């Protein structure tokens, strides 16, 4: 990339024209959308997955690795309260990140409450995945592997949105 940028700069300084003509041809019906519009769903999905899936999973794994779960159970706090606290932290973090991305990019168009409800549902889903991953992971490395594996499948529809030549039914699976 650096060599190509340097060659382009030298060509412009010398007053030479590029030896080829580049013509952009949009493919498919979504090709006319700007890249910013295509990136926003991917950013929101990953923000929700990072906050909702990774944070509770990491907190549960950390409790199990340090053996502090048994110390907490001795106190009046129950195991359900401990898990609920981790789920609430993951939910609030993830939900705020998703809404913040929408606000920063000024995407509140159309039915705002429906958008907020879907972000909330995605956040609940991510938190539940995070708690399940945290319960079944022996250490943080295995937990990260599970989170990244789940993240690829959850973000696949948003990634396939960049390629309009891929049929619509593939991203709906």
Task: Please specify the SSE layout and strand pairing.
Blueprint: H1 2-14, H2 35-65, H3 69-74, H4 79-104, H5 112-136, H6 140-160, H7 168-171
Helix pairs in contact: 2-4, 2-5, 2-6, 4-5
How would you describe the overall organization of this protein?
Residues 14-173 form the ABC-2 type transporter transmembrane domain. The structure is a single chain. With 173 residues, the protein is mostly helical. It has one domain (34-171). It contains seven helices and no strands. Helix 2 (35-65) runs parallel beside helix 5.
Let me know the average pLDDT: 83
> What would the principal axes of the Cα set say about the shape?
elongated
Largest sheet: none
Radius of gyration: 22 Å
| Class by alpha and beta content | mainly alpha
């Amino acid at each position: 990339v650096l060599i190509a940028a340097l060659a382009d700069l030298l060509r412009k300084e010398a007053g030479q024209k590029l030896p080829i003509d580049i013509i952009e041809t949009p493919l498919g019906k979504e090709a006319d959308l700007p890249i910013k519009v295509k990136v926003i769903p991917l950013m929101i999905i990953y923000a929700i997955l990072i906050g909702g899936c990774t944070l509770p999973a990491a907190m549960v794994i950390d409790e199990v690795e340090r053996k502090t779960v048994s110390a907490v159970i001795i106190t009046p706090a129950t195991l359900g309260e401990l898990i609920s606290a981790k789920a609430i932290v993951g939910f609030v973090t993830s939900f705020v990140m998703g809404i913040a991305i929408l606000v920063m990019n000024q995407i509140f168009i159309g039915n705002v409450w429906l958008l907020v409800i879907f972000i909330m549902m995605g956040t609940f889903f991510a938190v539940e995945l995070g708690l399940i991953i945290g319960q079944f992971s022996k250490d943080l490395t295995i937990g990260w592997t599970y989170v990244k594996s789940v993240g690829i499948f959850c973000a696949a529809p948003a990634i396939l949105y960049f390629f309009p030549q891929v049929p619509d039914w593939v991203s709906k699976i």
